[in-house]
């Protein structure tokens, strides 16, 4: 063979096709060159036990398959397929050929196998396995050929070498996120992201991941497959890495892959996935209801960058809508962490960390506790919150112009320009520049991780969920709210500001990520509430001594997913029937407060359908003991407040049914002493307030 021909053959062996599988072998191999792989790394799956008796009868080394593939040797075995190294007869290139195991040949697995072929054959991404050809053997068993990649699976790599370093992990999962984002843009959801389905090759001494096995892939708009195949006994997905919606058999989206990727990242960085259990059902339950540990906790106290902890927490949110918006966003955030790598070095463990204490105090529950709901909200509600690292160069000037910030000398003396910017010393943090003369309020990272006075410079992780509680100093000029861009704040608390009027609501209506709004003793009425009528991010709404009507509140779009709604009404004629009807059967609301709201027994019919309620505040309404009995099915109630009304001792039977009740406010001043004693005996673990 001439040297020129040998060179051509070598080039052909590294070619990556870009045409479809149907066209590939009708013409020469077009496409781009794949990076050379390290031949010293073992072939993927080479360490797996092979049960050759499960292979189709024709699968013997040296045989020709489908007239064009020479079988060289088996290289791997998965849950339902065998992988052989083969050589194409005409092209003389080595490929991997995958076929179904005889014992797993059934209609369900055939469909999965076909899905894997259909998904992978349309991809052309350097971090995704590429399918070359497919066919069906004479005995009816399908096969397909794909590029042959040298290297261990991520699972095998972790077993041999331990967790990835921080830099390795960020670089590897930046590429994995890019690959999955590409698949999502091609309307394909992987549904089985795990370390076994990522191969690590080497290029220029750097790890290069290849994502494979789209056998469980779901094509967007193609309909939902069941969570398991009862005849085969298999889950659709792998329990240690399955999203809560997968665990419950619900419709999945790209957000499910984001969750599974977070579980895989978690294991790669700490050595174990976020949840462990002896049995699959225990794992599924933990995914559904148990808060995940921090990376630091899982790594035995080794600290990770705060920004990375927050990112993983967002990706692991139970509610898909609270995770990162897309795999592209995950990719951007990892790039941000890499960009700020000087501040991402692992720091010594700080035992007095407030975040660590909060995470350690979390406990599992079938229904989310309030703290966990708010924590999940805090971590993931605002996809892309405050990413000014991307926006500063082009949008800071535009925001200042659009927001019409006063540029007179006096205002400049109070608030520097720019008011917020990327921290020059730490690219993964944002700094707010407040004047240094007096405090302008407090800022808090949700959920209530300590407040900081708004004086001088305040620094936060660049996408941290921040709540702002302005002081009277700030509201000397209410237009100062313009200083915040549309993506800076998650929460706002307005407390007794006489200058907080409807115009303030017009300002915050522009905030895209507002999830928490609490208003106390302010002159904001129905007109003001109209400005946030279309806000669909709001999950916490508190209105106390605010002249708004139940009719107007009932128009809010956020009611379909509100989690905390707490209202004190001073209007004796207020009508909350439309609001309660909107909340009927809500699976999300965990706290409802309707004090002084002119409620009667009939209104409790709607409240009784809110099965996830944990806190219910109904003081100072026209309710009876017979009416309260309608609430007996609210099994998760832990805080019930029924003061300001005359309930007789017959209510004890109903209260006894609330086995989780921890706090009860009820007026028993006119009860016989023996009935008061009976109440206390009925609820021995409850804290009472007799007001």
Automatic annotation (TrEMBL):
<keyword id="KW-0067">ATP-binding</keyword>
<dbReference type="GO" id="GO:0004674">
    <property type="term" value="F:protein serine/threonine kinase activity"/>
</dbReference>
<protein>
    <recommendedName>
        <fullName>non-specific serine/threonine protein kinase</fullName>
        <ecNumber>2.7.11.1</ecNumber>
    </recommendedName>
</protein>
<feature type="domain" description="Protein kinase">
    <location>
        <begin position="69"/>
        <end position="337"/>
    </location>
</feature>
<keyword id="KW-0547">Nucleotide-binding</keyword>
<dbReference type="InterPro" id="IPR032675">
    <property type="entry name" value="LRR_dom_sf"/>
</dbReference>
<dbReference type="InterPro" id="IPR011009">
    <property type="entry name" value="Kinase-like_dom_sf"/>
</dbReference>
<keyword id="KW-0808">Transferase</keyword>
<dbReference type="GO" id="GO:0005524">
    <property type="term" value="F:ATP binding"/>
</dbReference>
<dbReference type="InterPro" id="IPR017441">
    <property type="entry name" value="Protein_kinase_ATP_BS"/>
</dbReference>
<keyword id="KW-1133">Transmembrane helix</keyword>
<keyword id="KW-0418">Kinase</keyword>
<feature type="binding site">
    <location>
        <position position="98"/>
    </location>
    <ligand>
        <name>ATP</name>
    </ligand>
</feature>
<feature type="transmembrane region" description="Helical">
    <location>
        <begin position="371"/>
        <end position="392"/>
    </location>
</feature>
<keyword id="KW-0472">Membrane</keyword>
<dbReference type="InterPro" id="IPR000719">
    <property type="entry name" value="Prot_kinase_dom"/>
</dbReference>
<dbReference type="Pfam" id="PF00069">
    <property type="entry name" value="Pkinase"/>
</dbReference>
<keyword id="KW-0812">Transmembrane</keyword>
């Amino acid at each position: 063979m001439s040297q020129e021909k040998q060179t051509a053959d070598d080039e052909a062996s590294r070619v990556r096709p870009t045409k479809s599988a149907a066209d590939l072998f009708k013409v020469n191999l077009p496409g781009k060159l794949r990076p050379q792989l390290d031949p010293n790394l073992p072939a993927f799956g080479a360490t797996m036990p092979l049960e050759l008796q499960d292979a189709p009868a024709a699968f013997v080394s040296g045989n020709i398959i489908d007239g064009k593939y020479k079988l060289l040797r088996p290289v791997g075995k998965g849950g339902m397929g065998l992988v052989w190294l083969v050589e194409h007869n005409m092209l003389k290139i080595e490929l991997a050929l995958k076929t179904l195991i005889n014992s797993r040949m059934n209609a369900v697995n055939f469909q999965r196998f076909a899905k894997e072929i259909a998904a992978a054959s349309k991809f052309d991404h350097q971090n995704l396995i590429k399918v070359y050809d497919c066919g069906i053997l004479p005995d009816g068993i399908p096969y397909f050929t794909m590029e042959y990649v040298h290297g261990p699976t991520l699972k095998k790599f972790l077993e041999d070498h331990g967790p990835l370093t921080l830099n390795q992990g960020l670089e590897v999962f930046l590429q994995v996120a890019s690959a999955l984002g590409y698949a999502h843009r091609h309307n394909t959801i992987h549904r089985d992201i795990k370390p076994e389905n990522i191969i690590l090759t080497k290029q220029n001494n750097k790890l290069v991941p290849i994502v494979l096995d789209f056998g469980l892939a779901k094509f967007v708009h193609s309909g939902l497959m069941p969570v398991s195949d009862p005849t085969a006994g298999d889950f659709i997905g792998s329990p240690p890495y399955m999203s809560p919606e997968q665990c419950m058999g619900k419709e999945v989206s790209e957000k499910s892959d984001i969750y599974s990727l977070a579980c895989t990242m978690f294991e790669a960085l700490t050595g174990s996935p976020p949840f462990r259990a002896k049995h699959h059902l225990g794992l599924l339950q933990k995914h559904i209801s148990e808060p995940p540990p921090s990376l630091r906790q899982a790594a035995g106290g080794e600290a990770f960058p705060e920004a990375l902890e927050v990112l993983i927490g967002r990706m692991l949110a139970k509610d898909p809508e609270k995770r990162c918006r897309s795999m592209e966003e995950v990719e951007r955030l990892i790039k941000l962490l890499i960009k700020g790598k000087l501040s991402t070095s692992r720091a010594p463990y700080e035992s007095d960390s407030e975040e660590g204490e909060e995470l350690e105090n979390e406990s599992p529950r079938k229904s989310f506790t309030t703290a966990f709901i708010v924590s999940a909200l805090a971590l993931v509600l605002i996809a892309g919150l405050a990413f000014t690292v991307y926006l500063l160069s082009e949008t800071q000037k535009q925001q200042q112009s659009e927001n019409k910030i006063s540029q007179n000398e006096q205002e400049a003396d109070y608030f520097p320009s720019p008011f917020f910017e990327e921290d020059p010393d730490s690219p993964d943090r944002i700094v707010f520049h407040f004047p240094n003369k007096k405090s302008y309020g407090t800022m808090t990272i949700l959920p209530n991780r300590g407040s900081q006075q708004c004086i001088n410079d305040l620094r936060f992780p660049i996408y941290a969920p921040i709540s702002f509680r302005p002081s009277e100093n700030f509201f000397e000029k209410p237009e100062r709210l313009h200083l915040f861009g549309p993506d800076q704040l998650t929460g706002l608390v307005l407390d007794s500001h006489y200058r907080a009027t409807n115009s303030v609501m017009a300002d915050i209506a522009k905030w895209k990520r507002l999830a928490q709004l609490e208003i106390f003793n302010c002159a904001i009425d129905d007109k003001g509430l109209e400005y946030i009528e279309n806000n669909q991010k709001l999950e916490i709404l508190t209105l106390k001594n605010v002249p708004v009507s139940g009719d107007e509140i009932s128009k809010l779009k956020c009611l379909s997913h509100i989690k905390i709604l707490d209202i004190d009404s001073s209007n004796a004629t207020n009508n909350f029937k439309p609001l309660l009807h909107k909340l009927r059967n809500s699976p999300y609301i965990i706290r409802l407060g309707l004090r002084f709201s002119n409620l009667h027994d009939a209104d409790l019919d709607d409240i009784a359908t809110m099965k996830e309620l944990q806190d219910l505040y109904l003081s100072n309404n026209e309710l009876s003991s017979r009416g309260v009995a309608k609430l007996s099915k609210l099994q998760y109630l832990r805080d019930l407040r029924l003061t300001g009304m005359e309930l007789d001792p017959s209510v004890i039977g109903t209260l006894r049914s609330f086995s989780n009740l921890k706090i009860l406010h009820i007026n028993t001043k006119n009860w016989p002493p023996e009935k008061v004693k009976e109440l206390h005996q009925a609820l021995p673990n409850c804290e009472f307030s007799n007001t």
